[in-house]
């Protein structure tokens, strides 16, 4: 009588091992994923929220809009390296382990962010200042390309089968928490320091926090064991090239995933990162009011994100993602019209609405993407699709929003850009299969 292939028993093994994981281990997994992702995206947030000040420090000879375009251009260029980073970190994560990739990426991000605080301004070293800024931002982009995907895969592979959506929602929640701290610090600095103090040294303070926070995140991650799903793979499977396997066996999933990420890519950076600049530069609100409105919206976003994770476990990933796309197509432009009313309360409510709509996508996407790919290419598939879409459309979103307003002289241009992204995401998700009720693909 023939014995069944070894990989059949291995495929079932992770499901059994996950059920045996202790509550204490799960808490440490959640904490490590939250803190690490929080640190990475706090670093990114600070740059976005202080873009107006940074533009005058590094591009002082340009007019206001040109300086902003240059600052957001540096922001966007740093994203172009992210697909390359997706391949790099995906290879490490699928071949050597999720934990190793995540522990290394957080160190690189923290060091790069710390270095931004040390770069002299244009007035001191001339054109070398924006060149150094660009180089450091490229290193940041390379590092961040492995974080979101790795943390999501880590959580999904440790989560009980019926709670993968809730566990994965920790990733966008920690991302928003990083943005929230960045927003609070920006609001505090703009209200406490004078304009000259902000431009001279105040803007550098948040970047200095990166080093100690990064060390804490790395320490916690190194104390964890890799996921049951990854450990169940054979040594032969670890040794294969994950990118080659991904393109050979998971092309359809890769295309679907890249399209599905588009709403997240554009929506996240327009609504949660670019919005204070939009309110201050385009609608004439004070910097303090703009940051306060975004801070309130971010706090509500974090609360909504966990509800979305629970709902995606109950109703399915496709239903949640489709609902998010349809709502954005219908309500985004009217919401941007209301932002121009000049009423602070209306602006806060609109941002809460937009943030709540975004959570329907963001709270579902990490588990959806992780479940699309088998274990041996999960990190690579997630990282490449997520970072490709973010490189082309996410990092460029503040730049495109500013550029479209300049070209069309229409303040609603960012809203229409969001509508277009929603349509592409909707089409991609319609071609996907529902994954929430199925076991994770092991082979």
UniProtKB/TrEMBL annotation:
SUPFAM superfamilies xrefs: MFS general substrate transporter
InterPro entries cross-referenced by the UniProt entry: H+-coupled_symporters, MFS, MFS_dom, MFS_trans_sf, Sugar_transporter_CS
Subcellular location, record wording: Cell membrane
Main subcellular location: membrane
Molecular function GO terms recorded: symporter activity
Membrane topology category: Multi-pass membrane protein
Major facilitator superfamily (MFS) profile domain: residues covered: 29-437
Keywords recorded for this protein, A-Z: Cell membrane, Membrane, Symport, Transmembrane, Transmembrane helix, Transport
Entry GO terms, CC: plasma membrane
Entry's transmembrane regions: 41-60, 66-89, 101-119, 165-189, 201-220, 254-275, 287-308, 320-338, 344-361, 382-407, 413-433
Family per similarity comment: Belongs to the major facilitator superfamily. Metabolite:H+ Symporter (MHS) family (TC 2.A.1.6) family.
Function: May be a proton symporter involved in the uptake of osmolytes such as proline and glycine betaine.
Protein name: Putative proline/betaine transporter
Source species of the chain: Arthrobacter globiformis (strain ATCC 8010 / DSM 20124 / JCM 1332 / NBRC 12137 / NCIMB 8907 / NRRL B-2979 / 168)
């Amino acid at each position: 009588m023939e014995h069944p292939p070894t990989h059949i028993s291995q495929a079932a093994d992770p499901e059994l091992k996950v059920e045996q994981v202790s509550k204490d281990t799960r808490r440490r997994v959640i904490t490590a994923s939250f803190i690490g992702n929080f640190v990475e995206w706090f670093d990114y947030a600070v740059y976005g929220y202080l873009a107006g000040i940074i533009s005058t420090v590094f591009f002082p000879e340009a007019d206001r809009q040109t300086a902003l375009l240059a600052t957001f251009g540096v922001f966007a260029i740093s994203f172009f390296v992210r697909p390359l980073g997706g391949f790099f970190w995906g290879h490490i994560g699928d071949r050597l382990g999720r934990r190793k990739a995540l522990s290394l990426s957080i160190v690189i991000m923290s060091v790069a962010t710390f270095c931004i605080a040390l770069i002299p301004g244009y007035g001191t070293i001339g054109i070398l200042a924006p060149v150094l800024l660009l180089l450091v931002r490229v290193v940041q982009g390379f590092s961040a390309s492995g974080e979101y995907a790795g943390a999501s895969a880590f959580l999904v592979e440790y989560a009980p089968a019926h709670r993968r959506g809730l566990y994965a929602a920790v990733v966008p929640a920690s991302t928003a928490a990083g943005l929230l701290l960045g927003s609070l610090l920006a609001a505090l600095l703009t209200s406490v320091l004078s304009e000259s103090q902000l431009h001279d040294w105040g803007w550098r303070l948040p970047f200095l926090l990166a080093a100690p926070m990064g060390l804490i995140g790395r320490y916690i991650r190194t104390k964890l064991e890799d996921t049951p799903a990854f450990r169940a793979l054979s040594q032969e499977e670890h040794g294969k090239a994950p990118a080659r396997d991904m393109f050979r066996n998971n092309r359809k999933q890769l295309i679907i995933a890249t399209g599905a990420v588009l709403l997240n890519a554009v929506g996240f950076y327009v609504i949660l990162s670019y919005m204070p600049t939009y309110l201050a530069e385009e609608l004439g609100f004070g910097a303090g009011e703009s940051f306060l409105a975004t801070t309130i919206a971010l706090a509500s976003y974090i609360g909504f994100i966990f509800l979305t994770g629970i709902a995606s476990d109950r109703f399915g990933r496709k239903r949640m993602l489709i609902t998010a796309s349809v709502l954005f197509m219908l309500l985004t432009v009217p919401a941007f019209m209301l932002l121009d009313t000049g009423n602070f309360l209306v602006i806060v409510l609109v941002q809460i609405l937009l943030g709540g709509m975004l959570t329907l996508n963001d709270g579902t996407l990490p588990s959806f993407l992780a479940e699309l790919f088998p274990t041996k290419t999960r990190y690579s598939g997630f990282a490449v699709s997520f970072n490709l879409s973010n490189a082309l459309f996410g990092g460029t979103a503040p730049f495109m929003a500013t550029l479209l307003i300049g070209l069309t002289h229409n303040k609603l241009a960012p809203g229409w850009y969001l509508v277009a992204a929603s349509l592409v995401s909707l089409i991609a998700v319609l071609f996907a299969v529902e994954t929430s009720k199925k076991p994770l693909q092991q082979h």
